[in-house]
Amino acid sequence: MKMKLKTLASSTIVLTAISQVYGQYAPPPPLAPFPGFINEALRKKDPYMAAWDFGGNNRARYELKEGFGIAGIAGSVDFRDHGVAGAKLDTYNEYFTDKLRYHIGYTAKWFSIYGEGRSSFANNDQRFAYFASPTPAGTVNRKGQGPESDTIDLHQAYVTIGNHKKFPLSLKIGRQEMSYGEERLIGAFGWNNIGRMFDAAKVRWQNEWFAADFFTSRVVVPVDGQFNVNNDYDFFSGIYATTTKIPKNTLELYFLARDASTKAIAAETSPQAPQPSARDIYTLGGRLKSLPGQIGNWDYTLEGAYQFGNFRDLRAGAPATRLEQDAFMVSLQAGYTFADVWATPRLGLEYDFASGDSNPHDNVHGTFENLFPTNHKFYGYMDFISLQNIHDVRAILQLKPHSRVSLAVEGHGFWLADANDNFYNVGGAPRGGTAATPTGNGYGINPNYNRFVGTELDIVGGVALTRFAQLEVGVGHFFTGNYIQQSLHHANFGSKDANYLYVQTSINF
């Protein structure tokens, strides 16, 4: 019995750790474990206070964006240089965001409870808090303080019942973050100043052979100035299973269902993020990942997913009925770490593909649905691209010149998977015009254009200043390719490259 408990505990640790990704930039670890100032003080006086958890984090970030479209400013579009008459457009946005998270938790033998508040502030952001053109019926464009402002709200509040050392079944219910795999399809979107939460119920079965989550949820819609509620018409459910019993690998298998009714798109009058059109999309996929150190200095990850169901396409010229969903994605990555070389460099290569729609006028929708990802980690830190209608070839060099320092240099090459489909932004929206003017902003569907979108070069570095504070700096440049240049030249707007800079501090307390 003791041996089984030991094996189960070990499996729990492994299954928790495998979500760590060595294909993306990771900030340096703290100099020493830091439970938080309040926890340290309380536990020093009374060891039994270890059952309690008081603390939080403050993250402040300055961002400078040049060549980025600014939602709400007429004619401001990614990479667009000027208007028809030659006048320069405003694609320069320089702003400051600050996210304060504060929590309290209690863990007993058979249950735990956790609550977390959040205050998200934005200063000088020119983007509208909500902007759509055309605006869906029932919604209103709103300037506010930008899409990443949510002054005070409840970020998480959940109860967990169970003890996997004693019994294989547990329940987690309440408002919570959800992250699976590398967060390509389901992520907490932690880069965003608000993040992503779900009102969810999750049952977990875990033993020494595998772990599986069975969940149903509704995504929370942030709206600044009022208490955030979930979208009553957008359900997200699924099964996500993981096992480490395959030698030298971990295997994840999942089935996900997103069901949104026609009312989902206008569930809130002015949401901080656009809501979905009607759809019933089912995703069946798997992910195979090498375990750290099991194949020498090499590592690899393979993931693929297929989607079926139906989708209501709101693009100009699309049929007015729901279309049959028939789409897929593939992600392949591999790397080698030079363990005996200064800075232990890791060289990695990655290829990501997501299908596009080859015929926007038939009854089949071939564009992959990106679901609820954290795209910032994968398709360029400048956040122009989503996992939709795209080929992405990525090369990355990661360095750790000091225990306190992490550095990553990476480049991307992007091509449209199908020129009969749109060029999608990081949020999954097509870059296109309205029904009246399908190419009114310079983009749209251009099947005769070269599919090469462009290249992006990013450099990101982080320093662990203390055991509770970190500093991170990143720069990026996007070189526009033929597709962007042809699209904007055709509309007489002209194109230009984009630049990005951010400086971020993170302090735990």
Task: Describe the protein.
The structure is a single chain. The chain is mainly beta. It has a single domain, classed as Porin. It is built from three helices and 21 strands. It has helices spanning 2-17, 37-45, 482-490, and strands at residues 52-66, 92-107, 111-123, 150-161, 169-176, 198-206, 211-221, 229-243, 249-260, 279-290, 298-311, 323-337, 346-354, 364-365, 390-402, 405-416, 423-424, 430-431, 452-464, 469-480, 498-508. The two termini are 40 Å apart.
Task: Give a brief rundown of this model.
This protein is mainly beta. It contains 3 helices and 21 strands.
The N- and C-terminal alpha carbons lie at a distance of 40 Å
Helices and strands, in order, run as: HHEEEEEEEEEEEEEEEEEEEEHE
Largest sheet: 18 strands, antiparallel, barrel
Radius of gyration computed on alpha carbons: 23 Å
Rough outline: globular
Provide the domain count: 1
Q: Helices and strands: which structural class?
A: mainly beta
Q: Unreliable segments (pLDDT under 50, ≥5 consecutive)?
A: 1-20
The first-level CATH class name = Mainly Beta
**Average pLDDT rating:** 93
Q: What is the fold-level CATH name, i.e. the topology?
A: Porin
Q: Please report the total strand number as a whole number.
A: 21
The number of helical elements comes to 3
